[in-house]
Structure prediction request, 396 residues.
Amino acid sequence: MATRSSPSRRASPRGATAVKRTRTRPPTGSAAASGPGAPAAPLAPTGQLATLRAWLAFAERAYADAGLALGQVASTAHDEALFLLLRLLGWPLDSDASVLDQRLDPAQRITLRQGLERRVRDRVPAAYVVGQAWLGGLRFHVDERVIIPRSYFVEHLLSGQLELLTGPARSVRRVVDVCTGSGCLAILLARHFPRATVDAIDLSPGALEVAALNVRAHGLDRRVRLHRSDVFAAVPAPADGYDLILSNPPYEPSAVCDRLPEEFRHEPRLALDGGRDGLDIIRRLLREAAPRLAPRGLVALEVGGLRAAMEHEFGHLGLLWLPSEDGSDCVCVIRADRLRAAASAGATALKAVAAKPGRSQTSAGRPAPALPEAGAKVPAPPARARLVKRGRSSTA
Ligand SMILES: C[S@@+](CC[C@H](N)C(=O)[O-])C[C@H]1O[C@@H](n2cnc3c(N)ncnc32)[C@H](O)[C@@H]1O
Prediction:
């Protein structure tokens, strides 16, 4: 079952073992071992470690001894430790494998020890230790004001799956990323849809500060607009409606959040906790989306492990599940006409109305987009576009 997961960035020097991105559920089973009261793992002496290779082996052992939770940056201790060590040294993630045998000077060794202590002893996520994370080949500033980017949407965007549904990228003009966090998806959307204006909404002022840094760093101030808003409450709907409303909202049930390993509790609870059954924000977003969509608009939602719950409550909206490489298929797409039909028939509950199959008329009287019906298969991305490899997260 997919839940809040983590695409890590390829963190391995060329020639070393391939890094797998992970997008997995925080390993709740290990939470007790790494819970708030767990003793901090002391780091063994490092005076003898001369090369990056020796530090890497040491770090992997330290991860295992401390039972660190993985899944925010990479799915294996090797990959995450390599990411951490390379970035602490300021070396590129795609460094040649020869860097492993480079001798480190005393200042570099102090930097590595201090960084590892934060990760192993304090259980600070590696991305926060180095203040950066990668998604879709882009670097983002991250700190404890935002969740570490690891959305499945990157796979659907880069593979072109989403574009199969929206129509050609250049035809997409108005997009909104609800629950933007670091702004990573808003930025990827703006780059993917080159003529689009992207509204990026978050309730957290801290998250919006981080998003502003990232939007500026990627040179997108003119096309990505940040809004502090509780879902759509403070954001006026665009005159012609959104072509795409996209959201990776908080969707973990509160009880899951209560049991998270310490690493995941460094992330803002607001970013993870979707209420008693995980659906709080999703219900609101779907209630408020219909009047904000263009006639042929789409809603795309990442829902983690809530697929069955979504089908139970919103199956009448014709949820179209996008296939992901690891089979978790936790992103669904909903057409504007299905939402409108449900909204006009059942108002807030959005229940009870199932639109008729086939091409239906939108409220504007134009044909609805030729989207596959629910249950139909969305073509998988071409193999060359499958840039993301994921595994299950686990403890080291
Ligand atoms: C899972 S994070 C997603 C962040 C980012 N889109 C990503 O994929 O990395 C969810 C975000 O939703 C924000 N959020 C939570 N409740 C919200 C609400 N009621 N209205 C707007 N944003 C909210 C949180 O602050 C957090 O940044």
About this structure: The CA atoms of residues 300 and 333 lie 4 Å apart. Residues 21-132 form one domain.
